Known about the structure:
The protein has one domain (5-360). The longest helix is centred in the last third of the chain and has 34 residues, at 263-296. 67% of the residues lie in helices and 3% in strands. It contains 15 helices and three strands.
Amino acid sequence: MQIDHRLVAGFDWPLFVLSVGLALLGIVTIYSATCSVNEDCSRYLATKQSYWLVIGLFCMVLAFSVDYQHLNRWAYPIYGAIVILLGLVLLIGITSGGSQRWLDLQFFAFQPSELAKIVLVLVLAKTLCYYEPGYSLTALGVPLMLCAPVLLLVLLQPDLGTSVLIFLIAMAVVVMSGLRVRSLAYFTAAAIAALPVGWQFLKPYQKTRIWTFMNPESDPLGAGYHVVQSKIAIGSGRLWGTGYLQGSQNRLEFLPEQHTDFIFAVFAEEWGFSGCVVLLAAYTLLILLALRVVRRAQDRFGVLLAAGIAAMLFWQFTVNIGMVTGLLPVVGIPLPLISYGGSSLVTTMLALGLLINVSMRRNTR
C-alpha cells in the first residue's frame, strides 16, 4: 500500500503535540487533585485517565487516517445512531447526582451527550455545505430539525450545561455557513425573547444555581459553596502558586468536584497566576491552530467541520473557566483534555483527530 506523501507532509504536528501535551498535563493534575491530608495520593483515577488517553490516541489516529469526506456520506446514519443512544440513556441509563447521562457498557460508563457534540457538528456541516452563503432564516428548517432532538434529549437528562454548549456549537456552524447578518440578528432576538419561557422549564436546583451566580456569598455553605471554595483556591495560588501537591484547599478537601469540573482551581492554586497564564496561552494556541485549519480547508464541508470543532473547544474551555472563576453559573462542563472523564477525553481527542484530518488533506483536493 502506497502512502500519499502529501498527507505526511501536511500532518499538523503542532496541533498533535499540543493536544497530547495538555492531556498529559491533565493526568498530572488529576493525580494531584486526588491527594488529601487524610489519605495518601491515589493513583487510581490518574492511571485510569492514562488508559483513556491511550484509547483517545487510538481514536485520534483512526479519525485522521480515513478521509473525512467518507464521513460526509455517513453523516445521517451516524446522527441517527447518536439520537438512539441518547434515547436509551433516558430508558436504561445510569443515574448519578440527580442526572441520567450515562450508559452502562459493563467495562465503563459511556456518556453519549459528549459524542453528540461532534455528531451534530458533522451532520450540520453535511447539511449546510450545500447552502449558498447569504441564506435567510427560512432555510434553517432542516438544520433546526436536526438540532431539536439532540437538544431535547440532553435537556431531559437533565443536563442544561451540555445542551447550552451544543446550542452554541450549532450556532457557530450556522454562522460560519453564511447565515445572513440580518437573519442572525432576528434569530438572536427571538432566542433572548424566549428566555423567560425557558426559565419556567428549569429544575429548581438549576434556577438556584443561576440566582446564586449573581451572589454566591449569599449561600456560602449551600448553592454557592462550589464557587466560593473555587475562588478561595484560585486566590491562594497568588503569583507563583503553592507548589505541586501542596494546594491546601484541595488537600484539606474543601474544594468539591476537584478532579472533574473544578480541576482548574486545583491547577491555579498549585501553579498560581503565572501557571494559569501559561495554561490559558496553551488553550489560546490550540484554538488558533484550529482556526488555522478552518482557514486552510479546501472544501466547504471541511471548513464547516473544522469550524464546529473549533467552536466546541472554545466554548467548552470558556464556559469551564468562567464557571470556576464565578463569571458564569455552575453548569457542570469539564475542562477539555484536563478534567477527569473517559467520555470527555476520548471525544475531545476524536475531535482533534478530525481537525488534523482536514488539515493534512488541504493539499490533496
